[in-house]
Each structure stands twice: as structure tokens, then as C-alpha cells.
Design a protein that fits this description.
- By secondary structure, the chain is mainly alpha-helical.
- It is 59% helix and 3% strand.
- The protein is built from 18 helices and four strands.
- The chain has a two-stranded antiparallel sheet. A two-stranded antiparallel ribbon has the order 3-4.
- Strand 1 and strand 2 form a beta hairpin.
- Helix 6 runs antiparallel to helix 7, helix 7 runs antiparallel to helix 10 and helix 14 packs across helix 15.
- The two termini are 47 Å apart.
């Protein structure tokens, strides 16, 4: 138990070497400032349950409730103090309670610091994952809006970074929207795994008290307890690793989106322009406008991947039960949640303000883009595909759409007139743009440039939004019932409530 003098939860009045204390505490006491509000909420649920099984008196509960709500108010305001001597926020909270209430020494009955830490991390992580899912959906909706605006804006599709087939800017944007919706399914799995209470598992072997673990879970708005108490203990670190793996996938999608936009904004391509307010400058070159935000989104994807690997490395060879190694999983977990939130907000801002240069996209169209379409035009005329492939390859370039007649011949002539890959302005340019539009119209399969099915994507996004908002509302209502008022568990600026477009 903590004392008013600030003793540690495990203090048995035995001296600890100052070097070992400094090494084992590390910066845990600083990290825990993010978790105090979650710890207050979980402790209030635990105390309420203890009173229900007559371990605490009604008077004890009233005192503890008052103390916990006072600590919660300080935590939400960012004024709750955790000192290095406290070792962590959980000791600081118990010290606060024992200093302000006579019942403070009873709060730790039936729990260990391990299930207390896990509960705080889960309550915090649940809130953070709900916020992250909302941020993913904000970016999805921005991308779908961008795709609708530029649904038929022709551009070269590329493989191996080389010219490949005709495509559209709408197809490109909608692709990332769908990727992120798939990533969202991973975050939803993490949310559901996180939204279970470990309280009552103590050090992994329960406690010789009739603890009502289901009641605590219900009070916290969880879907239930982690059933097996040792499984609950073993979930620490592993749950963080699963979440980091999901965040890694989100960051990977964002990194590739950022990389595309960096390339698209190259002066040599000029497909898009990044507004000046989204770029930084050079200390020596006055003309520079650098896509530093996009570059850091790209770089921090590697950071998130490294954090995921670090946590898995920590837990991979641990035997069952609690080990102090698990302390080292906290920083990567909290850091990755904030990092990905920042990436999502930067990418959403970028998409909202991106300036498209349609003429540059049109200038990028070249005759060889239509080689594959020309081959398929020959297939539709009865030629075997492999013969059509060779014919198109032998001509150097093929046509774009059967409706335009013998486009294989026409495109080859166009290539001879202008030189493959070097089409200028004027009629040839207009022909290629028209060819691209007709090529897109021929792509009627679901998900192709001619049939993006953006309404279907929007419906999918709306369903996910209702799920995320509904889950958050249920948790929020449970915490209001528990604390008597709304609770701000997560104070991170990056994980703050969603902002309006362009905000």
C-alpha cells in the first residue's frame, strides 16, 4: 500500500539502491501522466464492486469516490502530479487517495499493480482506438470526395514506375480509401480485444475474494472480462503488439499515399501542387517548397513498424505471468497511437487542400498507354490474345478503344507522327485524351475506373462510422453512469475529437 509519505506499492521498508531505482523507474512516471484518468475510472469501478461484495463499506466507497473524482478532475486538467519517487502513476494515485481519504489504504484490495496497469492501458487504448478509427474514416471520406471530383480525370497508370495503362485520378484516390477501410477492420478487431476488463485477475492467479469481475467490466462499459485470469496477465504486451501491428498497416497505407503525392508533385510531373501552407522551406535555397509533412508521414511509418517489432521482441520469449520486461511495452504503445493519429490528420489535411493540374495529367498521356487496349480490341475481333499481344508489341503501340475504329493502326500512325512517349500539344493531345476517356468507359467491371462504385464505398464508410460512433457512445454512457459526468480519458492533442474538413 502507498503511504502519505509516497512509498511504493511494494514497499516493505527495505532499502533499494538508488541506481537500481533510477534504472527500473525509467520514464514510467512521465508516461503515466497519460493514463491517470483511465486509472481513476478503472479504480472507481473496482471500488464500486468491492462495496457491492461488502469488502468496502458504503462510507468507504463514498470517500474513495470523492477522492477518485478529485484526482480525475486534476488528470483531465493536466495538473495531477506524478513524481519520480512515486515510481509510476498508480502509486501516485494511491498516495493521493491515502492523503485525502481514510479509505485510501483499502483501494488496492483484490488487485495487483499488474491488473491495475492493464486496466488503465485498456481503458486508454479503447478511447484512443475509437478516435483513430474516426480519423481513418475522416481520411476515407476525404479520399472518396476527391475521387468523385476527379472520377474521370485521365492519368497514366504505372507498374514498375513505368507507363502501363490508362487510368484516372479517381481510381487512384478510391484505391487508398478502400485500403484504409480494410485497415479499419484490423483496428476494429483491436478495439474489441481491448474492450475487455482484466480486473480481478490480480497477478494472474486471481484473489481469494468473491470478486465480481463481470460487474467491473459492465461498469467500465467493457464487453466482459478476459475470462481466464492467467490469459489476462499474459495478454499484456501481446495485446499491445496486436494493436501495433494494425497501426503498422495503417501507417503503411499512409506511407504509400504520401510517396505517390511526393512523386506526383515533382516539377517534372506536376500532376498536383501542394499548397504553400503545407510546405516548408530551405535555409539556403530561397525557391524551395519542400513536402516535409509527406516525407515525415513516410518516415514515421518505418518508426511505427519498428515499435511493433520492438514490442513483439520483448514478449516473444517471456514465460507465463508478469515480468518487469513488460514495462518496456508501454512507451512504444503510447507513441504509436499518437504517431498514427498525427499521420492521419496530416494526410487528411493534404487531401483536402491538394490542387490538381489536369493539363499536366493530360500531357502525361502517351500512345503506348493504349497498347494493351489495342491488343484486346484485336481479341474482340477474333484474334487469339497471344497473337494480339505480339501484334501490338510489334507495332510499338496500339489503339485505345474499339469504338474509334481500327485504333491499333490509328495509334501506331499517331506514334509515328509524334514519336512514342513524346506527344505534343494540339490535335494529337486531344485524341489521346478522348482515347483515354473511351478506354475508361470500356472498363465496366466493378472497381475499375469506369465503375468505381463510389456510392457503395460511401455506404461502407457510413456503416463503419455508425459502428465506431455507436461503440463510443455506449462506453461514454457507461462512464457517465459510473462517474456521474462525462469523462475525458484520453487527453492527447493528436487523439483529440475529430476536426472539420481542412481544420
Amino acid at each position: 500500500m502507498a503511504s502519505s509519505s509516497g512509498g511504493k506499492l511494494w514497499d516493505k521498508s527495505e532499502p533499494l539502491d538508488a541506481l537500481i531505482e533510477r534504472f527500473t523507474v525509467g520514464d514510467d512516471y512521465r508516461l503515466d501522466s497519460a493514463l491517470v484518468a483511465a486509472d481513476c475510472v478503472a479504480s472507481l469501478a473496482h471500488a464500486t464492486m468491492l462495496a457491492a461484495i461488502d469488502v468496502l463499506t458504503p462510507g468507504d466507497l463514498e470517500e474513495l469516490r470523492g477522492g477518485l473524482l478529485a484526482a480525475l478532475e486534476q488528470a483531465e486538467a493536466g495538473t495531477f502530479v506524478i513524481e519520480r519517487a512515486d515510481e509510476d502513476g498508480h502509486t501516485a494515485l494511491e498516495r493521493f487517495l491515502t492523503r485525502h481519504t481514510a479509505a485510501g489504504a483499502r483501494i488496492h484490495t483484490g488487485r495487483s499493480r499488474n491488473d491495475q496497469v492493464m486496466a488503465a492501458l485498456r481503458v486508454y487504448g479503447r478511447d484512443a482506438l475509437a478516435a483513430l478509427q474516426g480519423l481513418v474514416l475522416d481520411l476515407v471520406d476525404a479520399l472518396l470526395g476527391f475521387a468523385a471530383e476527379h472520377e474521370w480525370c485521365s492519368m497514366p497508370g504505372r507498374t514498375h514506375t513505368q507507363i502501363a495503362m490508362p487510368s484516372t485520378l479517381g481510381l487512384w484516390a478510391a484505391a487508398f480509401a478502400e485500403e484504409l477501410l480494410d485497415d479499419l477492420a484490423l483496428l476494429d478487431t483491436c478495439y474489441r480485444l481491448t474492450n475487455r476488463s482484466p480486473l480481478g485477475s490480480a497477478a494472474g492467479y486471481g484473489a481469494p475474494l468473491p470478486l465480481d469481475r463481470e460487474q467491473v467490466a459492465a461498469l467500465l462499459g467493457c464487453d466482459g472480462p478476459v475470462h481466464n485470469v492467467l490469459a489476462a496477465a499474459n495478454s499484456r504486451g501481446k495485446l499491445e503488439a496486436v494493436t501495433l501491428d494494425a497501426l503498422d498497416q495503417v501507417a503503411l497505407s499512409l506511407s504509400r499515399l504520401a510517396q505517390d503525392l511526393i512523386l506526383f508533385s515533382l516539377p517534372e510531373l506536376g500532376y498536383v501542387t501542394l499548397p504553400v501552407e503545407l510546405c516548408t522551406g530551405s535555409s539556403i535555397m530561397p525557391h524551395k517548397r519542400n513536402p516535409d509533412g509527406l516525407e515525415l508521414v513516410r518516415a514515421r511509418a518505418a518508426t511505427v513498424s519498428g515499435l511493433a517489432g520492438a514490442v513483439k521482441g520483448i514478449v516473444r520469449n517471456l514465460p507465463s505471468g508478469y515480468h518487469r520486461d513488460l514495462q518496456e511495452t508501454k512507451r512504444p504503445y503510447l507513441q504509436a497511437l499518437e504517431t498514427v493519429a498525427g499521420q492521419l490528420k496530416v494526410m487528411r489535411l493534404t487531401v483536402d487542400r491538394l490542387q490538381v493540374r489536369e493539363e499536366a495529367l493530360a500531357r502525361a498521356l502517351t500512345p503506348e498507354l493504349f497498347a494493351t487496349d489495342g491488343a484486346f480490341a484485336l481479341v474482340q475481333g477474333g484474334m487469339a490474345f497471344r497473337d494480339a499481344y505480339r501484334a501490338a508489341a510489334g507495332a510499338g503501340v496500339a489503339g485505345s478503344a474499339p469504338e474509334r475504329g481500327d485504333l491499333h493502326t490509328e495509334a501506331a500512325a499517331s506514334a509515328r507522327r509524334t514519336g512514342a512517349g513524346a506527344v505534343g500539344e494540339g490535335p494529337e493531345r486531344d485524341d489521346l485524351r478522348a482515347d483515354a476517356e473511351q478506354a475508361m468507359a470500356l472498363r465496366t467491371s466493378t472497381g475499375t475506373a469506369g465503375n468505381l462504385d463510389l456510392p457503395g464505398c460511401r455506404r461502407r464508410s457510413a456503416v463503419e462510422r455508425r459502428r465506431v460512433d455507436g461503440a463510443a457512445a455506449r462506453v461514454g454512457a457507461a462512464l457517465v453512469r459510473l462517474a456521474g459526468r462525462p469523462v475525458q480519458v484520453c487527453r492527447s492533442a493528436w487523439l483529440a475529437p475529430r476536426e472539420g474538413p481542412g481544420a
